[in-house]
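Friendly challenge for the regulars: who can give me the structure tokens for this chain first? No prize, just bragging rights.
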Amino acid sequence: MSETISGRLEGNQHRLTQRVYYEDTDFSGSVYHARYLHFLERGRTDFLRCLGIEQRRLAQSGDNESLTFVVRHMDIDFRAPAAMDDLLDIVTEPQKVGGARLVLHQEVHCGDRLLVTAQVTVAIVNREGRARRMPEHIAAKLGL
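First reply, four minutes later:
Bragging rights claimed.
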């Protein structure tokens, strides 16, 4: 599948390429650990976008059932550093959909080096912050 600014789907995985900029690094020249959360978020957001799940449309429905995805839990393992100008490959793969939750496995690579792994649980909530069952059309697009 062809690459766009939102990355590409390859089977059950989504891949997004991001460059490391000066703003992503700390005084040592390595990517600051919290910046990986930004890269992972971009991977999740563009994964949904490539599936045709429009988060802005979900959130702007104008009633109490306006829906949004929120991170509920994350386990993250920092394995190796990245540096300014590195090209990172953010891989996102759905693992499980159930009720209001979606579990994703994510990895950040630089070439053949695995830098970060994360297991992320997101929940879908309404405007009031209450969990809601994953809409069938979204669960179907996730293919699980």
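Residues 35-50 form the longest helix (16 residues). The chain has a mean pLDDT of 92. Your move, everyone else.
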